[in-house]
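Something for you to look into today, if you have time. I want to see for myself how the chain folds. Leave the record below and I will have a look.
***
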Amino acid sequence: MGTCEDKNYRTLVAAAMANDHLVQSKTPMDVNLSKQLVILIHDMGMPLERIIMDPTTGALGYGIEYGYSGMERLRLAALQGDSMTQQPILVTPGEECWKVKEAKVGEGVPESWGDWERRSINWETTTAASLVHAGADLVVLRHPESLRLLRALVHDLARPAQAA
């Protein structure tokens, strides 16, 4: 359907409710704006369990720290009982990572940067792994190898610890 933002959420929420769809609440990297848009969407009658938050984030080296800390704050508020921050969090590291020069440029860069394709996949995977650690529930990736690597990481994190 589209992404709900402050300028278009009314139309999209009405259409989503009429057709029994979920909505994606997308805001700039700001905890208060994320929460405010969820409240506005919910006030229109959309059940909280049908809202997915997309607090936006930057790629590794391009604002990921700010996005990470915003996601942490959303998760901490949710754990403290704030129902307006308890929605699943969607992140799009694939979109963010593949537009940075480190992931796009294969020529004219220092040799120490390594192979372009490997660097790009690692950039996307590292960004995605950081966002999973920050509390992301849904991760949109672009490269199949990044998906494989992230799945392996999540599997390893979920595996029971071995006795020493």
User: Anything to note?
Assistant: Helices lie at 9-18, 31-43, 64-79, 93-97, 101-104, 116-134, 144-158. The longest strand covers residues 23-26. The radius of gyration is 18 Å.
